[in-house]
């Protein structure tokens, strides 16, 4: 199910969402002495992460992981790890513990078990806060339509934390079709699941996805949006 927070402008969205994220992390630290934050890459969340980086909380108690990774090296312009280091892990947030996904010299498939072990041992579960984005093709995380690995990635009974994905190349994927992603089941267990989208094109995709009746493989985010057991807080501005 969805909880919609729509705004007239992006600045107001970012300020409101940053305050909500800060409150969620502070609550987790207060309740169990630490917090886990799982973040998507892409481009849309950059202003949110920059705003969060200024927020005064005990970032040394926050573990940050990735929702997904394009399988490129950490210095590559398309790397989500690089994106998070550049937009979140500075200012006050520089003290957070960050656990990237990319492992050099091996495939996403070969790295999946190690990353799952790293995330399960270093981050506190269930995740306190997950920031998701969405592509115009209806993907979220790296759960891309009709991708190799999607069946297991969307399987609600899959016990694995992450899954290797080989997406079908498209204008959305670009050349980065080899991915590592958190699984649908892992995302569903988050205490707070936020979907951050902007613009009219993504709004139309979202509106169609939340009432999706067709094959879920064609619009993976619809699995989350139509799951009555999961609350997705949707933040949107033009
Ligand atoms: C990625 C992201 C992905 C992202 C969407 C939206 O690796 O690309 O993690 O899931 O959230 O593709 O990306 P934009 O915000 O750039 O549109």
Word description of this protein:
The protein is built from 8 helices and 10 strands. By secondary structure, it is of the alpha/beta class. The protein has one domain (2-214): Rossmann fold (3-Layer(aba) Sandwich), CATH 3.40.50. The strands form 2 sheets. A 7-stranded parallel beta sheet has the order 1-10-9-6-2-3-5, sandwiched between helices. A 3-stranded antiparallel beta sheet has the order 4-8-7. Strand 2 (35-39), helix 2 and strand 3 form a beta-alpha-beta unit. Helix 1 crosses helix 2 (46-53). It is globular, with a radius of gyration of 16 Å. The mean pLDDT is 98. The protein binds 6-phosphogluconic acid (6PG). Residues 40-44, 67-68, 70, 80, 133-135, 140-142 line the site of 6-phosphogluconic acid.
How would you briefly describe this protein structure?
By secondary structure, the protein is α/β, with parallel strands linked by helices.
User: How many domains?
Assistant: 1
The CATH topology turns out to be Rossmann fold
The total of beta strands comes to: 10
Largest sheet: 7 strands, parallel
Rounded average pLDDT: 98
Q: What overall form do the CA principal axes indicate?
A: globular
Q: Report, as a whole number of angstroms, the end-to-end distance.
A: 22 Å
Number of helical stretches of at least 4 residues: 8
Query: How big is the Rg?
Result: 16 Å
Helix coverage percent: 25-40%
Order of helices and strands: EHEHEEHEHEHEEHEHHE
> What strand order characterises the main sheet?
1-10-9-6-2-3-5
């Amino acid at each position: 199910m969805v909880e919609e927070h729509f705004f007239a402008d992006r600045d107001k969205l970012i300020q409101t969402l940053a305050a909500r994220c800060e409150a969620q992390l502070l609550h987790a630290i207060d309740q169990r002495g630490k917090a886990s934050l799982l973040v998507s890459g892409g481009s849309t969340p950059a202003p949110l992460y920059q705003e969060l980086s200024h927020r005064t909380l005990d970032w040394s108690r926050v573990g940050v992981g990735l929702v997904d990774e394009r399988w490129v090296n950490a210095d590559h312009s398309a790397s989500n790890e690089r994106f998070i280091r550049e937009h979140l892990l500075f200012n006050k947030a520089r003290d957070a513990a960050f656990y990237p996904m990319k492992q050099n010299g091996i495939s996403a498939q070969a790295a999946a078990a190690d990353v799952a072990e790293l995330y399960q041992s270093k981050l506190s579960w269930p995740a306190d806060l997950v920031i998701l984005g969405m592509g115009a093709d209806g993907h979220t995380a790296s759960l891309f339509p009709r991708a190799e690995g999607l069946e297991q990635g969307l399987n609600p009974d899959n016990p694995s934390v992450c899954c290797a994905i080989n997406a079908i190349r498209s204008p959305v994927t670009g050349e980065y079709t080899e991915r590592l992603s958190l699984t649908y089941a892992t995302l569903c267990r988050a205490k707070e699941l936020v979907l951050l989208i902007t613009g009219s094109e993504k709004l139309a995709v979202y509106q169609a996805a939340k009432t999706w009746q067709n094959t879920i493989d064609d619009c993976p985010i619809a699995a989350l949006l139509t799951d009555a057991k999961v609350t997705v807080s949707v933040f949107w501005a033009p």
